[in-house]
Amino acid sequence: SVILARAALFDAVCIAILLAPCLLVPFLKQRLWIAILTAFGFSVGLELVALSTGRWAYASAMPLIPVLGVGGTPSVKLALLAFISYRLAQSMQREL
After folding, report:
1. SS3 state at 73
2. Helix axes 32-52, 2-24, angle to 10 degrees
3. What was the pLDDT predicted at 67?
4. How far, rounded to the nearest angstrom, does the alpha carbon of residue 55 sit from its chain's CA centroid?
5. 3-state secondary structure (DSSP) of residue 22
6. Could you read off the pLDDT of 48-69 as tens digits, one per residue?
7. What angle do CA 53, 61, 73 make, to 5 degrees?
8. Phi and psi for 86 in degrees, rounded to 5?
């Protein structure tokens, strides 16, 4: 569907923007946790904005992060994708 394709493209662009400094700045190359934490924080912020503006709502089955009140799956998704993308990019750089 078009909605899912747009969401996937948005995620890819966000991850590229978040990870570019971690691949290019020597200080950040050895600190993967910064990229993961940044991606998680961005996801939580995005979820809070989307929920407060009514862009989407969660089904009753959605596990919520207790203190934050946002969906666990969508919040962790971007951080997990950032981690996987970072590792793939690192391995590709080593091969060059």
Report:
1. helix
2. 150
3. 93
4. 18
5. helix
6. 999 999 988 899 999 999 999 9
7. 65
8. -60, -45
Question: What does the pLDDT look like over 7-60, one tens digit per residue?
Answer: 889 989 988 898 888 878 888 888 888 888 988 999 999 999 999 999 888 999
Closest CA relative to residue 46, chosen from 83, 14, 3, 17 = 14
pLDDT score, position 44: 95
Instruction: Extract the tokens encoding 58.
Output: 């969660």
pLDDT tier at 76, thresholds 50, 70, 90 = very high
Is 9 within 8 Å of 75 (Cβ atoms)? no
- Is residue 58 helix, strand or coil? coil
Contacts of 15 (CB under 8 A, 6+ apart): 39, 78, 81, 82, 85
DSSP-assigned beta bridge partners for residue 70: 65
CA 24 to chain centre: 19
